[in-house]
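Fold this: DUF1572 domain-containing protein
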Amino acid sequence: MTLPLPSNDPAAAALAAISHSFHSYKTLADRALAQLSPADWLAAPSAYGNSIAVIVQHMVGNLRSRFTDFLTTDGEKPTRNRDQEFEQPATAAELPAQWEAAWHILFELLDGLQPTDLLRTVYIRGEAHTVLGALQRQVAHYAYHVGQIVQLAREQRGAEWQTLSIARGQSENFNARMQAQANQ
C-alpha cells in the first residue's frame, strides 16, 4: 500500500497517514503469520514469554474494544476480559478469523472518519483523548506487538524465514531499483 500524497488539508493528510500505518502494520503481521503452522502460533519462547497466539488474542481483544463504537463509548468495553487475552489458548484454529474480523472493525471505522473528527474527544478507561491522540496511541501499540510477532516468527522459521523487508546484502540493489522507478 502506497501512502497517498498529502493534500492541502493537514487533518486529511494526518488521517491518511494513520490509516496507512495501520494497514502497513497489519500487512507486516499477516506476512509473518502466513509463514507459520498452527503449532508455531502456540509455541511460547519461554515459560515467561507470550506465544504468537497470545499476542494475536490480545490484539484482537484490544481492536474490538477500542474501535467498536469508537466515537460514542469508552474504548475499554465492560465486556472485555484483558487478563484472559494473555492466557494460552488450547488451539489457534479460530484466531485467524478473529484477527481478520477485529481489523475489519478498525478499517471500517477509518473509512468513515472525517478529518473534522480528529479533534473530537473519545475516552479510553475514562481518560479523555482526541481522536487523533487515540489513533496514534493505537498505532504505537500495534507496532509494538507486530514487532513481537515478526521477531517470534522469524526465530521459529530460522533459515526458512522469508524476509519481510530488504534482504541482507541487497540494500544497494533495492535502492537502485527504487531510484530507477522514481525517475520513470
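Residues 10-183 form a domain with the Four Helix Bundle (Hemerythrin (Met), subunit A) fold (CATH 1.20.120.450). The mean pLDDT is 94.
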